[in-house]
Specification:
It is built from four helices and four strands; from the N terminus they run ααββββαα. With 116 residues, the chain is an alpha+beta fold. A hairpin with a 2-residue loop joins β2 and β3. The protein is elongated and about 80 Å long.
Amino acid sequence: MRPIQRVIHAGFATAAIASASVPAVAWTVWPDVDFGWYANVGRVPAAAMPAPQPVSREGWIWSPGHWTNLATRDRWIAGHWVKDEYVEQQRQLANADSSSVLAARDGRRASPGRTR
């Protein structure tokens, strides 16, 4: 065998060994990767449970029921009403200064005129 062929064969062998060890290395470096998600690819989801949409309410948004995946099983989340706070949030952002935005980010309520 010629020297160039040996180099090429050695390169292919190295690539094959390296690619075979990638899953083991990935688990040790990134243990929080959700490998269960990959196992569910192509799985047929559960059928939706039909429910009529209720009459709309002022200031509320209807969130229809849906299936959600909890680890190894599916769970049905029933439809429910969610308070529409879009206008209130826009008003707060328009009147907010930097200190109230930071206080809100910390989880405390702050009036727009409050300083830290």
